[in-house]
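Hi there,

I know you've been waiting on this one. I reran it after we fixed the sequence typo, so this is the corrected version. Both the input and the resulting structure follow.
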Amino acid sequence: MRPSRRPPIFLQLSLLIIAVLLEITANFFANDESSPLAAGIRGAAGPALIILLVVLIVGNGLVLWWQAPRSPRPVWRADRSPYPGLSAFTEQDASVFFGRGEQVTELVRRLHELGVEGADRFRCVTGASGSGKSSLVHAGVVPRLRGDRWQVLPAVTPAGEPLGGLADLAVTLGAADRASALREVRTRPDGLARQVAAWRTRTGHRRGRVLLTLDQLEELVTLSSAAERAAFLGQVAALLEADRRVWVLATIRVEFLADLLAGSHPELFANPVALGTMRPADLVTVVEQPAQLAGMRFEDGLVDQIVADTATPDALPLLAYLLQELYLAAGPGRVATRQAYQALGGVAGALGRQADVVLAEVRRDSSTDDVLATLLRLVAMDGVEPTRRRVPLRELSAEQRRVLDVFTDARLLTTDVLDGEPYVQVAHEALFRRWVPLRQQVQARAEQLRRRTELERWAADWVHAGRSGDYLLTGDRLALAGHWLEAMESAGQDSPAARALVDASRSRDTAFLHRVSETIGRFALGNVDRFPELAVLLTSAALRECPPTPVARRALMAALAFSHTEAVLAGHTDAVRGVAWSPDGAHVATGSRDGTARIWHADTGTVVRVLRGHSGMVEAVDWSPDARRLATASRDGTVRVWDAATAATVVVLPCGEVARGVAWSPDGSLLGGSSRDQAVQVWDTTTWQLTTRLLGHEGDVWGLRFAPDSQRLASASHDRSVIVWDLTTGRPEQRLTGHGDFVEAVAWSPDGTWLVTGSGDQTVRVWDVTTGETRHVIGSQGAPVWSVAWAPDDRTIVLATGDGNIHVWDVRRLREVAALRGHAQVAWSVALSPDGRRVASGSGDGTARIWTIQPRGAEQQVLTGHEGPVTALVLDRTARIVTGGADGTVRVWQPDGTAVVSSWSEPVVALACSPTADTLAVALRDGAVHLIGTDDDVRLDGEAESLAWSPDGSRLAAGCKDNSVRVWDIHTRSSAGVLRGHADWVSALAWSPSGRYLASGSDDRTVRVWDIEHPGDSTVHSGHQNYVDGLSWAPDEHRLATCSADWTIRVWDLTGTDRPLVLSGHEKRVRAVAWAPDGQRLASGSDDRTVQVWDVDDNQGEVIGVHRDGVTSLAWLPDGAHVVTGSADGTARVWADSVDPDELTTRARTRVFRALTDDERRTHLLPGSGNS
């Protein structure tokens, strides 16, 4: 079978040349008879030729000895089957390997070809699964080369760790240890070449030819990552370039060749050797020759039947398995019978028949589904066809191992050891295709198997990179991997490598997203007043898509407190120039440059009517007082009156060249229109006759509003003036001048004594209509003021400005109380609801919006009424909320939200309610303390900064500006003592539950506890680094909570056994603190706008609410489930003691009317933003 290798050509040629030269020389001299030398040569020629002949014979003998094999050809052992079954032929099976002689010879010839370039010495055998690629190489080519004195290195199979296979090869070649070898091939591009060179040096094989075999290279595609594949092939290519006497022979399934050609080092695979199907004559040899060696014979005609049944391209592994089973079933006589052949199921059915038998056996203890699910663990799926997957035994449960052991005993599976770890795999992939139950499962689970293969490839990338964080999954990829893994594990197809990757990715992703959530929270808190809608969107996304963080939750609460939008009215195709709220509050009307007017439902934001008829842009709209009709002004030069219920046109009134404004009189009798021709026209709404044409402006007339008495009309013009017209005479009553640019906005106060105007000079002016004088100028708004409205409360005005914002001002305090932000372009118009609580606006962005002036966040109730900060808050003995404000009022709130008000000329500094009587102590900024609720208003002098009533109601303590604590006997209205010791103002007081002790906190940073029975003594507690602002006793009287301008809360153990507990979490001065009735929790309020509840056992605080300004005071309601707070934002609010995040995000969804853009998500690193 093995052809002799020819002697080296240079040796044969040299011997031939010597013989020829000797013969020529001898002939030359032999022809010269006169020469004595010739005579001598003639005498010596005969012996010389004889010697030359001997030399040639000996030389060729030496050559033959040199080429003689060093390794004996393997022979078949009688104790082994001559048929390997589903396993590939190995070198030890060379004696029974038949049928591929021509292909072996051709491959050997190609391996002997000279190859200068490395790729020229890489031979790749391709073929379908089951075509015998590995058998051809190991049982055919390798033994032949060994006989030709080649050095054949141990075969390398990529498996799940290709570089690990090279490291194992290096250890076999003599490397110190696997770890160092693996490190070298991972870090040095020429690591394998260096190992082979060192092996040559150690063994003396410096010049001999070396063959490296790479088996099942499809595993570079199915089980390895792209990075590992590139690194592996890079090592092989470097070896071929470094050592020109190294050849590589590889095998790969043909369907994966394209993947390798498309990857790194495609030159290695440029000239594959295709292995086709066997001819029938070769199949006869495959069947008969091994049987002859083993002494087995076939019944007549059986070989022909077997060959005829082996007709399909993938039948070789089936044939090999059948022959093995026939041999084992032949018995002592070693006769393969047709009966045995048919019992096994023939070539096509033997494999499936055997698998069915095994399944029936294991099904006694396991269900079919469980068995097939276990076998699916041995399947990889990269493309269309399944491939084998090695599974470490340690990854299998005891039950799974029991099942696979039975299949292994039936020679359907094989076990081996790789990298020191035992594993199991299918003996041949034919099992996937030929056994129907498993084939059906593979087909049904193909997508799941592909996902597992892809996941394991990602995991291999990660492991190959040293578990680098750069290879962890993020964003959508991680979410996808998580879904895949859960589906796999629920189907019993777990993958430890994939699980490790996903867990590590989630851990890193969780940490990253935690930082993202905190960063978003900080951004939102810093920009909540400028970008409330964006803040709501971002914080909602952070809480929904990232691990919830306190700062994100707090930011969402703050965003809700600043998010005024209730609805976005979208439908117009151009700028919304005019808005008007119906007098019944049910509808909002809009007019647009798209030439239409629309009527919207104010609560749902849905369109009720679309009014079409104008041939030009609609500039203004206004409702009739009975809400039944709507008037519109258009650039087509007309004012139209519509039936609001039917959208029918009632009348069309000419209004100059371009109509700019329109307004109904409050009594409904008149309709006014303004125009570009500098005139104002007034019609009688009964007859629709023009009653008055008002002339006096010297520019376009825009804004138009009737006075509440319907007898006067104010018009605003581009001539920078506002004229108040007396409609009884048709003459100007006042001309208001002072603006430095056009005036388009005008509105009356509810009592008709004031006008507010807005101008292109970016200012707002409040005018006394009687005198025509400017009462207030509200400074620069940063953009032109296009529209104004005055609220029914007589103190609130709303402005629409060119920067797209709506500004809400308190005209008494000349203070902006809210900015409504959300429009993307200029805000053209604004209108207030009849109750003054909501605002409608129209914008150049093509939308109208409905806003609430007082938005709700996480609070359950908002109490409004103070005209400035709430400075003090207490509960009376019936648990009613009592607040005092900088406006000098004290309000006792009823359950329905109304209040009984008492007023002073000085701001309220502190409050205290008697626990036994309906008496309220009020400290004012002038230092006086008033007792109200008694027969008369009693005044106690003392310049009080803080107040506290004893539990029995008999004494009232006041912390004073003279650094003392004064105690009064309420019954006698006389002093019960003065406590001295503080070095600065006493700003906080609290009686202990028993009434024996009084605690005081001071601006001197100390807390003192006074024993009222021994008033000369006090215990001093130091530790705060700034003013002490609040005190509260625990119900057990053993603990005292204090809060300070140093941003902390301290809980003092008054038994003296422990150091104070310090609670940190607020980001500004902490103004108020109070124990819950259960004595386990504390509530605190801070200048950082937050209200927090603390569990003193774990030192953790939870933000339960956020005000629009600092929190000044608070108290627990008796139910222990709610906290009420007072704030510098002018409100008191009631909060639940904990926040439901789902409820919070649900509320947030009602405040936003768009999604985050891709750019916004990317900027803030949210998942799915393209940053993964």
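Quick highlight: The first helix runs from residue 9 to 31.

Best,
R. S.
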